[in-house]
Hints:
The complex is a heterodimer. By secondary structure, chain A is mainly alpha-helical. Chain A is about 75% helix and about 0% strand.
Amino acid sequence: MSAASLDMLKLLLGVGGILVLASSIGYVLKQKLSPDGSNGAIENLNARIRAWWAMVVLIAIAFVAGRVGVLLLFAFCSFAALREFITLINTRRGDHWAIAAAFFVVLPINYFLLWAEQYGIYSIFVPVYAFLLMPIIAVLHGDTRDFLLRISEVQWALMICVFCASHVPALLTLQIPGYEGRNVLLIAFLVIVVQSSDVLQYVWGKLFGRTKIAPTLSPSKTVEGFVGGVASATLIGASLWWITPFTPAQAALMSFIITLMGFFGGLVMSAIKRDRGVKDWGHLIEGHGGLIDRLDSVVFSAPIFFHLTRYWWSLT
Amino acid sequence: MIRDLMAKLASIAIMMFARALTAARAIWHETGLPPKQSIYFANHSSHGDFVLVWAVLPPWLRERARPVAGAEYWLKSKLSAFIGRDVFDAVLIERDAAARTQDPVEQMTAVLNDGSSLILFPEGTRNQTEARLLPFKSGLYHLACKRPDVALVPVWINNLNRVMPKGEFVPIPLICTVSFGEPMRLKAQETKDEFIARAEAALLSLAPSSTEDNA
């Protein structure tokens, strides 16, 4: 077994252990506080834990399947996220072809370019080509009402759900000396740090939360949850330095940046939900809401993490 | 035999396609699932409407649900006739009152007498206006008179008109929901107009409050 797969196995055992622990706690809480399934908070917690099992198993399968597996998984995530996003925005008849192009042309090409490892064109495909082509397709329909608004919404949907989200699998294209064949561990590092930050902010907030941090955006987020979550997720990230090309101090700094971006990403996406008058983006994941509800923090941290790593560590 | 197998495969393929495109989700009424035999009546804005209702029903309700559709549309080509008759087992009615050879209400009553459920669109045609609902045709009332024991279930299909607007042939993926209302029955001494107004109101009450998003 190669060193990379051995590290991956250790990581999976660790995550699996935490989930077993979480499921046991959820089971005990259910027996004690909600034996008839009437306590909403406990039921939601258990639904969330079950969904975590499913997500971890899916990611593990994608990792085992290799590069193509990871690309397909994230292409599917982009598709489902884009579907949730477009559902909530203002579209008119005249946007039909631009939206169809976003789903059936831009999204596949974006992921194809990653598969072909064409970083140069990949990095400008959505921001330049799609950005200019989408309004051209829409304008041919001749409907000018709310034109700027409609075009910016579709463009933003593409940037968030396709371009930014695809920076997670883009980590596979980096060439880091001494780290060959281990890039998939960078994805594991990013996902573990972001998601544990989300979970720990929730836990710290539930235990010690007093002061609301952004009452108009998200009533459940507190200063205590934010500080506790960011600090403990940064520690978790630092302790995972052995799966990364970083030193422990570098891993801590990276984790700190990742968690900050994730936090603000969550705020931005919840501002959009508030504006649209919905609580969740969808119903894809039981207990969590839509896919974007789970992906919002990853989407904001992935491009920054990618570019920091690329600038300082990668040859490409 | 081979035709049956192909119909089965086609129905699975159409359902998977509809789900991939719309992530369709049923919202049941608080009284629970509709009765085993029901007349589902829904708003009609797209050719995919009955596929979506059909796809979100649990298997034991779905297998007895037969959509009611216009014969002149579904018998136009061999392929659409195969989909209409073999795949969805549609009750094909002739909409042109002057030219028809069979009475649609008789046809639908016969299907109900066999124990099947019906999925029908009382607006009679696809709604392509700005109005949320077109005035109902009277068929629903006549059907309720013939079989007052069968529950009528209002079904609001949301968003499918945005997936494939009229005249487009490429659908776009959007999340759709299918809301089922409280089962209703014809009341004693209720007139045709009263009943139709009540049915329209029951269906409209399931529509989401904001219309701007669907403009």
